[in-house]
Amino acid sequence: LEPQAALEQALRMIAEGAALIDIGGESTRPGAQPAAAAEQLRRILPVIERLRARSEVVISVDTSEPQVIRAARAAGAGMINDVRALRARGALEAAAASGCAVCLMHMQGDPGTMQDAPHYTEVVSEVREFLRERLAACARAGIDAGRLAIDPGFGFGKTLEHNLSLLRRLREFATLGTPLMVGLSRKSMAGTLTQRPPGERTGGSVALALIAVLNGARIIRAHDVAPTVDALRV
């Protein structure tokens, strides 16, 4: 919420080895309420502009809103990270026109209610089929496959058991032929497994990142950049 503090955090992450910086103006954690596009832009545009002036790092913008996609691209963003997989009205067209890379994530429900009672008959096949359909929608909209990544959406409408099944079977997503991004850092999954609060989940988060990479993940979304980078280098 404070642009200068956000810029300083981004520069620290870059110094620690981050290849992309993900900037968002709307929380999508369980129970979160949506933020209007105008409010998202008020929060993120100063950060994007300042970071673009200071670094050549790839800037990813975490949004589902077409208006935000267009404005973020104009300000210097190179990637759209959408928890709704471009399903919002106009988002697919905005992303196609932007030329940006796009990460399509699976989410059951919406952030406000997604963790109330997640249910799947077979979580891995259902998530994979959803992502397959969204990749096809992108192809129909003229988005080249080389611009796309996918994210199974750990913690987004999923129980611990669902998350563990996805992690164990991540390699099954390779059949989609698209780079895989995962976000496991500090999530409740790590907290449940380690019995630690969010600020004390670095060890668990790094372990989850390593397991994900060994199972085929290509991009890791992390809070604690330096220890994650060190572990992956090793």
- The rounded distance between the terminal residues' Cα atoms is 35 Å
pLDDT < 50 runs, ≥5 residues: none
Q: Sum up the overall morphology in one term.
A: globular
Please, what is the oligomeric state? single chain
* Major beta sheet, strand line-up: 1-2-3-4-5
Mean pLDDT across the residues is 95
List the total number of helices.
9
Note down, in words, how this protein is organized:
The protein is of the alpha/beta class and about 230 residues long. It contains nine helices and seven strands. The protein has helices spanning about 5-15, 35-55, 65-75, 90-100, 125-140, 160-170, 190-195, 200-215, 225-234, and strands spanning about 20-25, 60, 80, 100-105, 150, 180-185, 220. The strands form two sheets. It has a five-stranded parallel β-sheet with strand order 1-2-3-4-5. A two-stranded parallel sheet has the order 6-7. Helix 5 (about 125-140) links the parallel strand 4 and strand 5 (about 150). Helix 1 packs across helix 2 and helix 2 packs parallel to helix 3.
Descriptive labels:
234 residues; two-stranded parallel ribbon; single chain
SSE topology:
Elements lengths: L2 H13 L4 E5 L12 H18 L3 E5 L3 H10 L3 E4 L8 H8 L2 E5 L17 H18 L7 E4 L8 H9 L12 E3 L4 H7 L7 H13 L4 E3 L3 H9 L1
Parallel strand pairs: 1-2, 2-3, 3-4, 4-5, 6-7
Summarize the structure.
Helices cover 45% and strands 12% of the residues. The protein is of the alpha/beta class and 234 residues long.
